[in-house]
Specification:
- The complex is a heterodimer.
- Chain A is an all-alpha fold.
- Chain A has 6 helices and no strands.
- Chain A has 2 domains: 3-85; 92-158, no CATH class.
- Helices cover 73% and strands 0% of the residues of chain A.
- The radius of gyration of chain A is 24 Å and the shape is flat.
- By secondary structure, chain B is mainly alpha-helical.
- In chain B, 74% of the residues lie in helices and 1% in strands.
- Chain B has a two-stranded antiparallel sheet with strand order 1-2.
- In chain B, strand 1 (190-191) and strand 2 (198-199) form a beta hairpin.
- Chain B starts with a helix and ends with a helix.
- Classes of the chains: A mainly alpha, B mainly alpha.
- The interface between A and B is large, with 63 and 56 residues.
């Protein structure tokens, strides 16, 4: 049996580490590139440039992220990327996380500012309580109304603040 | 040196105390905050930093003393109550109560729940009071020395903080440092102080930069909501309802253990970014090593509970020192306190005692008052501990997430802040999954701006002779300390990787 087809938790860990490490490496490269393009102002050149500290920070970040990449690569992370992806897609906890992030995104990006805050908060709580199966329809309705009243009416009123 | 500054806060203590006790709104806020803190501290998955981060957006709608009083009371309440969950459920209510589980839960299994909770409350109360007293005594001296620091030294202090926080706050220093560096980069976004150049300013919102509050709500609040809600694990509660009180007899019997934990915890609290999560284990370990009943530790030894709880509560005292003197947070909750101070226009730093006489005394008094109200509240709500512990997280956490949205909105009334909060929440969750500690990132965000400005101002000041920067005695000591810290952490990392 080839090593990548065996269930290997350590290999999956290394694959996840490699992916995040590569993301940080790309981020560090972006920071370095952008910082290097910032103007050199004043008589001291680079050291007084607005890009000096980000450039230095990005460079150290790049070096440290390369250590993470290299270690994950040595542990065979690149060979287990497929296995890691399969495990993430099939994992119940990952699915719950993605759905909860989806509901939050719907609330924050899709509803806020487009419909009244009260209605947006009501829809968010209703959907998330249904998904989390907190109880029967009466319990869901009661807690949705209670949460919406607290978040969209009571607190903004108490602190006299405008709502999104 | 102006030695009158040292005694200033001690001298102002009685008058500030009088101002606080004659302000009924502040007293009520601290009492309410203590109860809220106790409830969130008891609920597994809802920590002090999460509750504080979710409420910080609202705090700036009220006067500074009320807002800071609320946040401090929540912090103190959560620290005190985290032990209850550790004892009755074997899950730390806050990360700071992790060491309490080791002996607290075995005590509960032996039917000694009441004794364990009383030991936890009593030790954490004494730890809190003594920890803040140490702050009040030490802080003015450190602040006086800090007044002698120039831009170069301020930059080095920030770097020492980031290096220590990165190296000590997680299991892997490499990940801690990466986290801190990402925080520094985030802090670089927006208009810089020297040339007013908009770094990474691709949109008008980015030219303004990332605000502290949405970032903190996302990293500490929302990331934790995601972590808890994705799991579906029920837990079992041990014990029965009943009254608990403080137990002076236990305090008297284990006073040496408490004092040792307090001293160690104050020292750990001073180290930026490490905080109470580490202090509880060090306090516990020291008690175990020095105890005559070593073999009983881990099997329900009350001294273990006392050592861990005294340590986690006393850490706040130490953590306040770098927070107030340098603006460098000693722990997650103090990072939030610093963010709140900035919101109120109070700039923590060496000049704080000169610009705002009595402020340090006020903060210490608010901690003491919170400790008193929290224990009074704990006694009152103790018959309901089981009911509180049974609160469904599936209902509370979505409400907390929506409160986070409202808090992030309140920070600047822009949709961008709310999007940032969501982005930081998802990013923080992903980093936590790979064991990247988030406290160093928050530290990086908080100190990045002034570290950058201090370094470039120092380079400008010493541009004619850069070597003279290393001739300044305090700067030289800090520079050597920074290098030694980095080298020792790298060596420790290498040693831990050897089989």
């Amino acid at each position: 049996m080839p090593p990548e087809s065996r269930d290997d938790p350590a290999g999956r860990e290394a694959a996840a580490e490699l992916l995040l490490g590569l993301f940080i490496t790309v981020f560090a490269l972006f920071v370095i590139e952008e910082s290097a393009r910032m103007p050199r102002l004043g008589h001291l050149g680079l050291v007084m440039s607005p890009g000096f500290v980000p450039l230095f920070t990005g460079t150290v970040l790049l070096l440290l992220s390369l250590v993470i990449d290299l270690r994950a690569f040595r542990r065979g992370g690149h060979r287990h990327l497929g296995q890691w992806l399969g495990q993430v897609l099939g994992d119940d906890e990952s699915r719950r996380f993605l759905i909860i992030v989806g509901l939050m995104s719907l609330y924050v990006v899709g509803l806020l500012g487009r419909i009244p805050f009260l209605a947006a908060t009501l829809v968010f709580h209703l959907l998330i309580f249904i998904y989390l199966k907190i109880g029967g329809p009466f319990k869901i309705g009661f807690y949705t109304a209670l949460a919406t009243f607290l978040v969209a009416y009571l607190l903004p009123g108490l602190f006299e603040m405008p709502v999104p | 040196m102006d030695w009158s500054l040292v005694a200033q806060e001690w001298r102002l203590l009685p008058s500030v105390a009088l101002q606080i006790v004659t302000n009924p709104l502040l007293m009520a806020t601290v009492a309410l905050g203590g109860i809220v803190g106790m409830i969130v501290g008891m609920l597994p998955g809802i920590s002090a930093v999460m509750a504080m981060s979710l409420l910080i957006g609202f705090a700036f709608r009220v006067p500074a003393d009320i807002g800071l009083g609320l946040l401090i009371a929540i912090y103190v309440g959560a620290m005190a109550a985290g032990g209850v969950t550790a004892i009755m459920v074997n899950i730390p209510g806050t990360p700071a109560a992790a060491a309490t589980c080791v002996d607290g839960f075995p005590m509960a299994k032996l039917g000694r729940v009441k004794e364990a909770i009383e030991a936890s409350f009593s030790a954490s109360f004494v730890g809190e009071m003594l920890g803040e007293l140490t702050t009040l005594l030490l802080l003015p001296f450190i602040a006086l020395i800090a007044l002698k620091l120039g831009d170069w030294e301020i930059f080095l202090v920030a770097m020492v903080g980031i290096t220590l926080a990165g190296g000590l706050s997680g299991k892997n220093p490499l990940k801690g440092w990466i986290s801190a560096l990402i925080g520094l980069v985030i802090a670089m976004v927006g208009m810089e102080d020297i040339w007013a150049y908009p770094r990474f300013g691709y949109t008008p919102e980015l030219q303004r930069g990332f605000a502290f509050v949405p970032a903190l709500i996302g990293l500490f609040g929302l990331a934790e909501v995601f972590s808890v809600l994705r799991q579906k694990e029920p837990y079992q509660i041990l014990g029965q309802g009943g009254w608990v009180t403080l137990n002076p007899r236990l305090v008297g019997r284990y006073i040496v253990t408490i004092l040792r934990s307090v001293l160690v915890a104050v020292g750990i609290g001073i180290v930026p970014g490490v905080g109470e999560s580490a202090a509880c284990w060090v306090g516990y370990d020291l008690a175990r090593r020095t105890s005559k009943r070593k073999e009983c530790f881990g099997q329900g030894e009350v001294e273990g509970v006392i050592a861990a709880e005294a340590a986690n509560s006393a850490t706040s005292g130490g953590a306040l020192i770098p927070s107030l003197v340098f603006g460098i947070p000693g722990s997650g909750p103090t990072a939030l306190l610093i963010a709140a101070m900035f919101m109120y226009g109070i700039r923590p730093g060496p000049m704080l005692m000169i610009e705002r006489p009595g402020f340090v005394a006020e903060i210490v008094l608010l901690f003491w008052l919170s400790a008193i109200f929290t224990r009074a509240g704990a006694i009152l709500i103790s018959p309901s501990f089981i009911r509180i512990l049974s609160s469904p997280r599936e209902i509370l956490l979505p409400i907390a997430a929506a409160l986070g949205v409202l808090g992030a909105w309140a920070a600047g009334f822009t949709h961008f802040d709310v999007y940032c909060m969501l982005g930081f929440g998802v990013f923080g969750f992903l980093l936590r999954q790979r064991n990247f500690p988030l406290a160093p990132m928050v530290l990086g965000i908080l100190v990045g701006g002034f570290a950058d400005t201090s370094l470039r101002r120092a380079l400008l000041t010493y541009s004619a002779d850069v070597a003279s920067m290393f001739k300044r005695p305090i700067g030289l000591i800090l520079f050597i300390f920074l290098i030694l810290t980095i080298v020792s952490q790298i060596r420790a990392m290498r040693r831990s990787r050897r089989p």
